[in-house]
Amino acid sequence: MASPLEQLSAASGREFPNLLKARELTSKGLSERRARLAELPYDENVSIVLTGSWGRSEVTSGSDDDFMLLVTGDIGDKGDVREGVRPSKAEVEKILDRPPGDQGIFGKPVSSRWMIEKIGLEDDQNSNLTRRMLFLLESVYATGGEIYEAVYNELLDRYLDQSVKSLHPPRFLLNDVVRYWRTMCVDFAGKEREGPEKWGLRNAKLRTARKMLFASGLLPVFECNDLEKGQMTEFLRGQLEIPPADRIARAFLNHNAADPGGRTLGAYDDFLGLLDKEDFRDELNAVTRENYKGSSAFSETTRLGEDLEQGLLALLFETDSLPKLVREYAIF
Amino acid sequence: MVPLLLTEPDLVLAHHPLGASTGYMGDLRGDWPAQLGQARELSPFAIELSVLSESEIDGLASYLVGAPPLPFRYLSIHGPSKGRVMSESALVDVLLELGAHAQAVVMHPDTMEDPAPYRSLGRKLVLENMDARKHDGRTVEELDGWFAELPDAGFCFDIAHAWSVDDTMGVGGGLLDAFRTRLRHLHVSSMGSDLDHVPLTEEHEELFTPLLQRCLDVPWILEAPPRHS
Prior knowledge:
The complex is a heterodimer of chains A (about 325) and B (about 230).
Chain A: H1 4-12, H2 17-37, E1 46-51, H3 53-56, E2 67-71, H4 89-95, E3 110-111, H5 112-117, H6 126-137, E4 139-143, H7 145-159, H8 171-194, H9 199-207, H10 209-223, H11 232-240, H12 244-254, H13 258-275, H14 278-286, H15 296-318, H16 322-330
Parallel strand pairs in A: 2-3
Antiparallel strand pairs in A: 1-2, 1-4
Chain B: H1 4-7, H2 11-14, E1 18-21, H3 32-42, E2 46-50, H4 57-66, E3 74-78, H5 88-99, E4 104-107, E5 125-128, H6 140-149, E6 154-158, H7 159-165, H8 170-179, E7 183-188, E8 190-191, E9 197-198, H9 202-212, E10 220-222
Parallel strand pairs in B: 1-2, 1-10, 2-3, 3-4, 4-5, 5-6, 6-7, 7-10
Antiparallel strand pairs in B: 8-9
């Protein structure tokens, strides 16, 4: 059966060659990595989870191998996982040879319990929120599929707790998705104060892939407004396991906005095509707030980001039923 | 008194971003600050600065060079369709300078002779479909050749022009089918008996709604004042 993206392409007359190429690259690369990672020694409670472009099925020539070592079971007071987890990060990085940097998000094994149980309050630091949202919105398992699925369902159950009402969007989850988007925006400003490095690339991602990710989390949550409480877990699991671009394509189709959808995802497809080019990435990497006006790569990204944003706003604010949901739930 | 918005849902005025074309501000012609001020009263988000005649180009260029930062997030410039004196290459040079201030430069295909010079405008060039009086640019067949020569150009859908060619809106629907992936913005109005742009009537708003709903993600530029203004 055709994916929502392919259905939108047929309905809108807009092709998405770069998204479809990226899906092929993701699928092929994932199979290869799964086979190689399976040969490593494993503790029984460990799953290797790929996030970022792997989780979005948007791998291009410049994609990193963003991964987390997800560990279930007992943890220390601060969410620390015991020493000596196998496979080790170093063992994994011999196979995933374009690993993320040693920043707080990916630098050490991740406790599933901490990620799930510490939602909100002091212990839910920026890194925990980020890991949880990447896991929820853009992840795929590389190994330990059963562990991954169990943790995923446990996390959804945590969000869909006793506060959830039938025929209402789940507010706890909605608030965390919105919180993540705003956190990324605020952190962008925070990182700029630390230094100008990678300002252009971070800005470009915020305008495009991050915005897609936010919308792709928001839309399924709003759709729960039509569901009984008991239907939401299965619906959300089904939605969140398809790529973000498919979730958004599906929403445009469901709300009779195929033409705007084609242009919106077309802009994102164009951006992905540019991101696949090394000279484009190099130029974006070198862009700072001081020199962005002279960068054609940044100018092109800005234009495509605006087209993407206008399309998503039209979906949320000018189609049939979504505007009322946005008004009722998205602001307060 | 019941507020107007509660009695009369208005698809067009509710759209975002909405903007005014300065082309309908005849009494303010030449006074760019006043035209922009009036446009801003309708919406600070989108605007089309309309240079109907070549003789107005220098005034707009001077204004834009010295103007304070403008609030509009989408700014298009409508190139001249009357009083043409310059060669096409000279006109395109001027449009390139003006285009540095804008996201789009709109041209009427029936006023263009050679597409070649316009290629340098790249994506900024936007071609508009023409009304029934014109000899070119009215239908898919007539626009196809222009887009073949100018593959990067966008499409400005003038819904009233399409109505003047076919009041069943079949031609309009065909234009959107053919050029929807190029769509950059809309011109919205009704047309009077001599095919001049007049405020959008309620009857036309209802007639145009199915096509307008295919264009929710792009700016809509009013080619005549809102009917309640």
